């Protein structure tokens, strides 16, 4: 039987894949080798995420947005990559995004033609590029960290060794440049690694000069084009200005201005306000300029944190811009509630006892191995980006691992080790056997969980202003239910929540958003609709300031609240709890056009300034670090202030690793 050799070439034409299979029959070398071409049509796998409409239009099954341009534009929509001028999908699942990105990446792998390759080689050989070739051939002086941790070389081919060495190099890059570990969760992080891997051996990254000139300008241009597409949406959805304050390594008070809308949040500008941070007039003028940059008619809300002169700036904005609301950062306020919980005596005592256990485990390598063996490799502590979040997440994890912890400390392997006789061990066993301690842990977990859930909701990067009122109401109800037999504890927690809610978090905009949220308005279990109606009317008067604008608003409100017309159709009913509120109004609110416009603008706003991460493990946290007897493996702790944002130079790195001597580097 003659052997058939074949090659497969994939073309994409509109919504179909054309698979061209070229079969070359094996003939004697003297013969001409004819080829048989078979064209096979294959339906694009991405059609399962879309609905084909008339013409060249498709509807995304996740966000229901209609796109022009067929399946190709849908892929870029689902990939959430900044390309093709397509707005990213706000509802697509992460696994779908990963799948679509892989499809796009595989398609682009073979794009470079042989002529392009020849041109690239010719350009490299041209006299004009001699300096570039020289730069590529030059041998750079190894970095300080490379001198201490030289690259590992392995004899013979081994993909596993190559992968381990690559991970090691990446880790050292993070350490040397004091990068936050959460950077590794950035979508662009893995994209960067995949792009580099496609370049093959010998690729060298762009220099600092190229980054700050050529690439900075290119990326700025790309972002500018993307932002113009997003700005077109503001006429419908409006936008939120987010003022995020922070202090850099030079003790400068900086204010970052971000702009958020349903499609995405992007950076607007950063201002050094060190000299005027307490000057209300200056800050008011600064916010004025930002509002004017974006257009007063486009701005629905301004979110600022408590470090600014909130009251003074807010009063100025409200007086000068009748349709703009000023709100506090929801995630910051929820975090402050958890922080106040930690200050209650018995809660603080519970946290300290739990930290005694975690410190003992994490500062003994063999004990840590034994614990992970009992928990199936799971960590005991879960620290977040704030101290209070870390405390309650770790208590939650410890409660879940309670039987495994007891098994660890009671095992024969534990009793035969030297650390079983340490004083800390006696304290740990006493705590683990204390039923009062575990009851306190259970209470802390039960009381904090609704607020942690609220943090996840408002920090998810999606418009959440319509859910804040319900989240806070449910959280307070959970406290009342849990402490139904303990009025004293119930009052202590509720006083904290009510204080933060009344003085900081509550806003008429939140009440109006709750009233207009279909999942709340039509939920028979919700009892606070009557209580928020007055705030809803105040917001309407603010957004519709003239009687002409409010002419038919009463009838439109009745259509909505009574679920008549399109509001009551089967599609609208089925989508109440599954479709984002703003999009629900866009689809089903046509019978109430004035109220529809107001609802879309309100429900499209975000509610937080800085997303919280819930799975950061900070190995210098209070749950791990022992100040009296630091673990020798915690060598990064010795960087001190070098890791807090200031420059980490050779001398600091050397001192951190080896003490004060500079002789190793010859400096």
TrEMBL record:
Organism per entry: Vitis vinifera (Grape)
Gene Ontology molecular function, alphabetical: DNA binding; zinc ion binding
Transmembrane annotation, as ranges: none
Record InterPro entries: DUF659, RNaseH-like_sf, Znf_BED
Domain BED-type: 41-96
Keywords: Metal-binding, Zinc, Zinc-finger
Pfam families in alphabetical order: DUF659 (PF04937), zf-BED (PF02892)
Keyword Ligase in annotation: no
Name the record gives this protein: BED-type domain-containing protein
